[in-house]
């Protein structure tokens, strides 16, 4: 009996102790959650082993130090204990509730049957997006995909600014979750695109956005490959608020020096985080900094109260930091180190691309910008943060040919996709467009070859051999014939009109397979028996809308690669047509023709000017008598915005200037002028009539205005001056006319 009592007493005591222990643990956790203040625990001191001096900079972080360059503000000095692997997995799991989203299960393709159109929600009252987000929305609204009708939209973009989701940032927008859920067309995010540059906050900088994106696609900078949803999300570059809306500065590679040697091999100049996420790599850069051809200069002097946290190297680093000019390093080095910051992305990435300084990336787990379409192995060295000490030997092992190729590719990628906010946004939209229309999407080589995916519209073809700018790289040649397209704007009244002589001259060319007359006159076209009798196939196309832009419509009747564009009052001989076509076959990506014009900068008026003076320099070849590739009809009609096309149609002018702007923007090259012919100008002026544009006194003033409107939309002046003129062999030489192939040209 006594044994039983003792047993019960021991059991009750053990249970009491267990309950007291569990209650103490719960109270401790509760107090830790409720009190964010630092606390001091008095224990018997434990002697820690001394860390070697060379490992001090790599010591595990004890507190997070925040800077300014990556849009991060100083937070309170809290004791930061890193989360456990299990806790990190839980955080990542909660970031995307639809992590398995791909196009098939999470995107409604039915909304895109009428085309790829994008609707931007109207801004709410008292809503003031950041400058960067305003640029993004403006780029969408000026794109070829924009619509104001949500019923015809395939994709939806929020007017709510979601770029900066760092809760410590002044740009952080409150109540995004509730505002998004109130949208009538949200549908759990399906067919929505969300833009983001900064996610998470101090101290861990996770990819938390502060709201559930649901089934929406995410276009995000500093994307982590573990959370990135392939072929659904889009990885963006990190760009600053000062990044230009349009155009942007050109790349800095002006000379392709062989061998491509520069003063420095590898450079970096930036801030060094003493502790916290992103500090490990930057704190170790001094190990490979030799102050000779490898200059990796860092400073601790940034943010608030930096002196309270400086280490033994800070004073020396800060002093050396002032000895190097960042721009001088950037433009005189073969390679630029791009280590991660607090987040995976860095502003240094775009800066290196523009400077033709080959990026050496040290940011493990970073999903590189537009990785779905861009082959970064052709433009960057992708390193490993854990193998920092191998970087010098890796960069030294890159041969001169490889350096030159990498450097040239950085310039192409910068100009094609990254030089402006508009190009970054359009690249994002075109990637999504290709996903939706997989049967007619661009191939990866098209994205990674000049002129890039933005100018190679897949609606024309997904076969690169059909585009004029791929002929040379692929070893292809254009077809050996052409289609003549004549713009007719005046009624036929007598047999001696210039259009009759023009049709006869063109029809005699052995390269002409058909002649199309675009009838843009208000009166109906005359019957076929009123037109010249020729053996060449002859077709009259009467447009429903008689507009100036209609002359560049991609009619299905045009089957040849080459198009000879003609005004009805052009004066050309058969020899001139044949010679210009032979020249064009050698330059199929450019405009080749006779009447040339030029542009200039009027410093007095602060604008671009247009001139028709006959000089030794030109930048345009008018499409009244010129050859070009038929693809430019498609690009003109479907790439340019309706605002420019409507302006051309309202003025009934400037369509030829706009075509020159477009082709020069694509090729980065001037047109080609063939044999000088002053009679073209004289004849055109003599043939002025009430219906002729040349007789309009406002014609020249309108063209001046067009030059500046077009430049504004492109964001830069694409026209390039040239002094090249191509003449037939023996042209004007004092030899027998019988030895010359194009004899008639000299008689004109």
TrEMBL record:
<keyword id="KW-0735">Signal-anchor</keyword>
<dbReference type="InterPro" id="IPR040911">
    <property type="entry name" value="Exostosin_GT47"/>
</dbReference>
<keyword id="KW-0812">Transmembrane</keyword>
<keyword id="KW-0325">Glycoprotein</keyword>
<dbReference type="GO" id="GO:0005789">
    <property type="term" value="C:endoplasmic reticulum membrane"/>
</dbReference>
<dbReference type="InterPro" id="IPR015338">
    <property type="entry name" value="GT64_dom"/>
</dbReference>
<keyword id="KW-0808">Transferase</keyword>
<comment type="pathway">
    <text>Protein modification; protein glycosylation.</text>
</comment>
<keyword id="KW-0256">Endoplasmic reticulum</keyword>
<dbReference type="GO" id="GO:0050509">
    <property type="term" value="F:N-acetylglucosaminyl-proteoglycan 4-beta-glucuronosyltransferase activity"/>
</dbReference>
<keyword id="KW-0479">Metal-binding</keyword>
<dbReference type="Pfam" id="PF03016">
    <property type="entry name" value="Exostosin_GT47"/>
</dbReference>
<dbReference type="Pfam" id="PF09258">
    <property type="entry name" value="Glyco_transf_64"/>
</dbReference>
<keyword id="KW-0472">Membrane</keyword>
<feature type="domain" description="Exostosin GT47">
    <location>
        <begin position="113"/>
        <end position="398"/>
    </location>
</feature>
<comment type="similarity">
    <text>Belongs to the glycosyltransferase 47 family.</text>
</comment>
<comment type="function">
    <text>Glycosyltransferase required for the biosynthesis of heparan-sulfate.</text>
</comment>
<dbReference type="GO" id="GO:0001503">
    <property type="term" value="P:ossification"/>
</dbReference>
<dbReference type="GO" id="GO:0015012">
    <property type="term" value="P:heparan sulfate proteoglycan biosynthetic process"/>
</dbReference>
<keyword id="KW-1133">Transmembrane helix</keyword>
<dbReference type="GO" id="GO:0005794">
    <property type="term" value="C:Golgi apparatus"/>
</dbReference>
<dbReference type="GO" id="GO:0046872">
    <property type="term" value="F:metal ion binding"/>
</dbReference>
<keyword id="KW-0464">Manganese</keyword>
<protein>
    <submittedName>
        <fullName>Exostosin-1</fullName>
    </submittedName>
</protein>
<dbReference type="InterPro" id="IPR004263">
    <property type="entry name" value="Exostosin"/>
</dbReference>
<keyword id="KW-1015">Disulfide bond</keyword>
<dbReference type="InterPro" id="IPR029044">
    <property type="entry name" value="Nucleotide-diphossugar_trans"/>
</dbReference>
<feature type="domain" description="Glycosyl transferase 64">
    <location>
        <begin position="482"/>
        <end position="731"/>
    </location>
</feature>
<dbReference type="GO" id="GO:0050508">
    <property type="term" value="F:glucuronosyl-N-acetylglucosaminyl-proteoglycan 4-alpha-N-acetylglucosaminyltransferase activity"/>
</dbReference>
<keyword id="KW-0328">Glycosyltransferase</keyword>
């Amino acid at each position: 009996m006594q044994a039983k009592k003792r047993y019960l007493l021991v059991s009750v005591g053990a249970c009491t102790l267990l309950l007291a222990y569990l209650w103490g643990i719960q109270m401790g956790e509760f107090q830790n959650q409720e009190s964010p203040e630092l606390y001091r625990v008095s224990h018997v001191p434990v002697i820690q082993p001394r860390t070697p001096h060379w490992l001090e900079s790599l010591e595990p972080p004890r507190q997070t130090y925040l800077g300014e360059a990556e849009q991060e503000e100083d937070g309170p000095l809290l004791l930061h204990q890193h989360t456990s692997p299990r806790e990190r997995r839980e955080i990542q799991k909660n970031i995307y509730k639809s992590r398995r989203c791909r196009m098939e299960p999470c995107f409604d393709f039915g909304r895109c049957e009428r085309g790829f159109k994008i609707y931007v929600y109207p801004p709410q009252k008292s809503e003031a997006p950041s400058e960067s987000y305003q640029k993004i929305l403006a780029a969408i609204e000026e794109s070829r995909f924009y619509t104001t009708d949500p019923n015809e939209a395939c994709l939806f973009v929020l007017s709510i600014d979601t770029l900066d989701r760092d809760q410590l940032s002044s740009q952080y927008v409150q109540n995004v979750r509730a505002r998004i859920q109130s949208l009538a067309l949200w549908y759990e995010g399906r067919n929505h695109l969300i833009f983001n540059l900064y996610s998470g906050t101090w101290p861990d900088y996770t990819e938390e956005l502060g709201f559930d994106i649901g089934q929406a696609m995410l276009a995000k900078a500093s994307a982590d490959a573990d959370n990135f949803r392939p072929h659904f999300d889009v990885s963006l570059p990190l760009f600053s608020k000062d990044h230009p809306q349009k155009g942007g500065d050109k790349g800095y590679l002006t000379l392709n020096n062989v061998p491509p040697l520069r003063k420095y091999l590898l450079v970096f100049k930036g801030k060094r985080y003493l502790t916290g996420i992103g500090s490990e790599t930057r704190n170790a850069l001094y190990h490979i900094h030799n102050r000779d051809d490898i200059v990796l200069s860092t400073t601790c002097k940034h943010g608030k109260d930096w002196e309270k946290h400086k280490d033994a190297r800070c004073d020396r680093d800060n002093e050396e930091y002032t000895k190097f000019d960042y721009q001088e390093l950037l433009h005189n080095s073969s390679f630029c180190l791009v280590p991660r910051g607090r987040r995976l992305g860095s502003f240094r990435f775009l800066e290196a691309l523009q400077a033709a300084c080959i990026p050496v990336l040290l940011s493990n787990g970073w999903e590189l910008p537009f990785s779905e379409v861009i082959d970064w192995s052709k433009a960057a060295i992708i390193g490993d943060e854990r193998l920092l000490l191998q970087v010098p030997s890796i960069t030294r092992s890159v041969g001169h040919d490889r350096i030159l190729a990498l450097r040239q590719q950085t310039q192409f990628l910068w100009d094609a996709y990254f030089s402006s906010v508009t190009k970054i946004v359009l690249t994002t939209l075109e990637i999504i467009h290709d996903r939706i229309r997989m049967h007619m999407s661009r191939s990866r080589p098209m994205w990674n070859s000049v002129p890039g995916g933005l100018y190679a519209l897949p609606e024309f073809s997904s076969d690169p051999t059909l585009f004029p700018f791929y002929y040379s790289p692929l070893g292809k040649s254009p077809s050996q014939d052409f289609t003549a397209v004549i713009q007719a704007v005046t009624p036929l009244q007598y047999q001696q009109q210039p259009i009759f002589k023009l049709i006869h001259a063109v029809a005699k060319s052995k390269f002409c397979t058909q002649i199309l007359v675009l009838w843009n006159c208000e009166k109906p076209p005359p019957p076929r028996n009123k037109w010249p009798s020729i053996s060449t196939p002859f077709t009259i196309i009467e447009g429903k809308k008689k507009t100036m832009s209609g002359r560049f419509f991609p009619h299905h009747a045009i089957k040849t690669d080459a198009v000879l564009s003609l005004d009805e009052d052009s004066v050309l001989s058969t020899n001139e047509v044949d010679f210009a076509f032979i020249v064009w076959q050698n330059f199929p990506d450019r405009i080749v023709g006779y009447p040339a014009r030029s542009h200039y900068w009027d410093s007095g008026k602060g604008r671009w000017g247009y001139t028709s003076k006959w000089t030794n320099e030109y930048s345009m070849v008018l499409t009244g008598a010129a050859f070009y590739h038929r693809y430019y009809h498609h690009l003109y009609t479907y790439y340019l915005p309706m605002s420019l096309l409507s302006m051309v149609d309202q003025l009934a002018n400037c369509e030829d200037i706009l075509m020159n702007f477009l082709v020069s923007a694509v090729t980065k090259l001037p047109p080609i002028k063939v044999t000088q012919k002053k009679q073209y100008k004289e004849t055109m002026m003599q043939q002025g009539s009430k219906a002729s544009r040349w007789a309009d006194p406002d014609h020249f003033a309108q063209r001046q205005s067009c030059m500046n409107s077009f430049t504004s939309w492109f964001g830069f002046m694409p026209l390039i001056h040239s002094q090249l003129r191509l003449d037939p062999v023996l042209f004007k030489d004092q030899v027998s006319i019988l030895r010359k192939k194009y004899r008639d040209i000299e008689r004109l």
